[in-house]
Amino acid sequence: MANYRNLLVAIDPNQDDQPALRRAVYIVQRNGGRIKAFLPIYDLSYDMTTLLSPEERNAMRKGVISQRKVWIKQQAHYYLEAGIDIEIKVIWHNKPYEAIIQEVVADKHDLLLKMAHQNDRFDAMIFTPLDWHLLRKCPCPVWMVKDKEWPNDGAIVVAVNLSNEESYHEKLNIKLIKETKNISHRIVKSPHIHLVSAYPVAPINIAIELPDFNPNIYNQALRGQHLIAMKKLRQKFTIDEKDTHVVEGPVEKIIPEICDELHAGIVVLGILGRTGISAAFLGNTAEQIIDKLKCDLLAIKPDGFVCPINPANGPIK
To answer: UspA domain spans which residues (predicted)?
Structure first.
């Protein structure tokens, strides 16, 4: 179980306000620990120019890094003056997600925080390619922060998968709830933990192809299976029945809707971290949910997750 005391904040280089740093300070003030404000930067023009010697290019890179450190210190000066332990680190690296994950691994950070930009029209979060790389590949939990005040009496929602198709779902569900209780006790101080699961309706084409197939009986049996699994899960963690939700419908629709109804401050979900062909063709259910969320997100990998980024290939500093 993570302590959430060694935090890495991925600084957004394109804006002055840093909600992820603000959330990290919120966590440290309640839980203790330290923060590293981290920014990988790169400008191809500094490396491509033939008018400068290698020494001059290196000096220019160091100048840019120094300027960015000063800029981050300005963003953090209220926190620093208040005595919050914040280390500022800027490096030269042409692949931000690799640099961030390498830093997580090298310094054994137990939580990565990053801002997710907001779609003002729909009040939902917009996830960039950098966000998706971090969600899929970062070995520690990733807290995606929305630029929004924490809701008063906001709930914590745990998206659980009660399908019995894959054995790893049960282990991941247990890990998610343990981590959520840990967060609730140490950081968020919220007594409202809700477990949410969705199950699909019977596909119409099955009823057409199999005349004897009764979709109502199938749906009732599937709901019963999910209710039994949910009861077992809530009893294991002494969660009240009224705080559990088993709903028929697409999971990518149901989870965000329940989060809205409960005025959730954060939703906790497991992400398998598929990459390459499997991600392209199979997709990740978690990622379909993420696209529609309007609150903070904490994405947690299953035990045994292997980070695809080689930490040995360090960045240029």
So the answer is: 4-146, 229-301
